[in-house]
Amino acid sequence: MSSSIFPSQPGEIKKVQLSAPFSDQKPGTSGLRKSSRRFEELHYLESFVEAIFQILPGVNGGTLVLGGDGRYGNKRAIDVILRMAAAHGVEKVITTTDGILSTPAGSHLIRQNNAIGGIILSASHNSGGPDGDFGVKVNGANGGPAPESLTNAIYACTQTLSEYKIIDSAPISLSSIGQHSIFGMRVEVIDGVEDYIDLMQKLFDFDRISSFISHNFPIAFDALNAVTGPYATRLFEGILQAPVGTVRNGIPLSDFGGCHPDPNLTYAKELADLLLIGNSYAFGAACDGDGDRNMILGRGCFVNPSDSLAVLTANATCVPAYATGLAGVARSMPTSAAVDVVAQDLGICCFETPTGWKFFGNLLDSGQITLCGEESFGTGSDHVREKDGLWAVLFWLQILAEKKCSVSELMSQHWRRFGRHYYSRHDYESISSEIANDLYESLELKLPKLIGNSFAGSSIKHADNFSYQDPVDSSITDGQGLRILLNDGSRVILRLSGTGTKGATLRVYLERFVESNGDLTQNPQQALLGLITEIDQLANITKLTGMAKPTVIT
Ligand code: VG1
Ligand code: CO
């Protein structure tokens, strides 16, 4: 490793005046996410970053972690943020070669280096490139997404901002590891993959996984031309010695090769076809743009993310890091109750939080939970404070290596023991915000009158807009989604997405429980048909959206 410290770049603090504050810098479910074009507008990125540096505790004299998923705009943003960090008295920034840093690896670096936090440049599963999206995510000292209190304060700051501070200096090179200095601020360019792999090696038994997959258990991993490519290649083809070619689309591209880096059956169809139609692989997985999501497939078998969390929980002791058991678990509200049943069996607590990883932070920090997850292909544990795609893939492989069975066998065994939560999410993308808000508000108005009404062969037990009180800091977050809970345990939930950038996205979550001695082999869409039809009628979805079917069905 080169340890030469380059002479400090000359430069001076420049104060740049804004003619007016930007009104649209309210962070959504996961940071500020807008089109790449919006981020390229004069002072737009700078305004949000200024607000971060004014609000994040410990900036003056602190250490900051910085990197992104390699999408268009990544390197420009790193350059701007470095120069603004120097102007705000940050002592050291840790960034990565080519600016490549997955969200979970970034979370780990923050924790490992006692940083004040980090800035991760990604619009996650949204498409990239000049015509795609860009995003800025702020993480705190615990390595997790900034809590609401912090993002609200950052937003408020953008609303009154009149200037920002930046150093005028030439960009540093990100092409190799090394040390630099900007206006007295140290910049360490490190390999963004190494520390993460070291952490995985501490959690899992790589020898056992390697031996298992080498004995007639071929695996395929699709990085979707996004950030996990270099991580997965080193992990699977390097340490675990899977054949070259196991990792597909493994080089991060600034526009993700035109694909949508979202690991679901629609956007990761090539991989899904390999597993669901083809016969060459026993296991398949994919991650999203910034590496925090995962999709798990077996031969002829798709694992629903809610089920995945339940399976990891039920089999956690197969993994060395969790061999002594779990403190507790948590899931986001729209995630199915499959994990609740397992938690009850294990005698551990199961928390229900609003959508978004930031809500798991306090539970993880206080040691009340070890695992957590969301229906949106997110699973994670207390090893970092973000969801972690490759960690989940390794977790699955470790379980399969211990149980010596196929994915579909593991799923059937699970359902035979705990019963099955048939589950699906229907997304209606790019609908007009006005229509989406109307639909949502009119359903919300109807909710109080619905109790007792019959619904899809059962009756409505409870209907509300979900509100959450954090068990640790008692903060209250309301308006988190419309819930219709039935007496037979079924649930229908409606939410409007907080990560979309074009119009609005309506998400309809559907769930029906069948006991372990019931029919466990139905097609989920068939099993949920009654709920699908009823909610369409009640909320007028087809009529108001003008869409005959959802854009994405998971
Ligand atoms: C979506 C998911 C949510 C996830 C969020 C960020 O949010 O539903 O579960 O936490 O994306 O994931 P929304 O508001 O669009 O439903 V990621 O991979 O973008 O950091
Ligand atoms: Co993501």
Give an overview of the whole structure.
- With 554 residues, the protein is of the alpha/beta class.
- The protein folds into 3 domains: 13-191, 3-Layer(aba) Sandwich (Alpha-D-Glucose-1,6-Bisphosphate, Chain A, domain 3), CATH 3.40.120; 196-418, Alpha-D-Glucose-1,6-Bisphosphate, subunit A, domain 3 (Alpha-D-Glucose-1,6-Bisphosphate, Chain A, domain 3); 420-553, Alpha-D-phosphohexomutase, C-terminal domain (TATA-Binding Protein, 2-Layer Sandwich).
- Helices cover 32% and strands 24% of the residues.
- The strands form 6 sheets. Strands 2-6-5-3-4-9-8 form a 7-stranded mixed β-sheet, sandwiched between helices.
- The longest helix has 15 residues, at 389-403.
- It is globular and about 70 Å long.
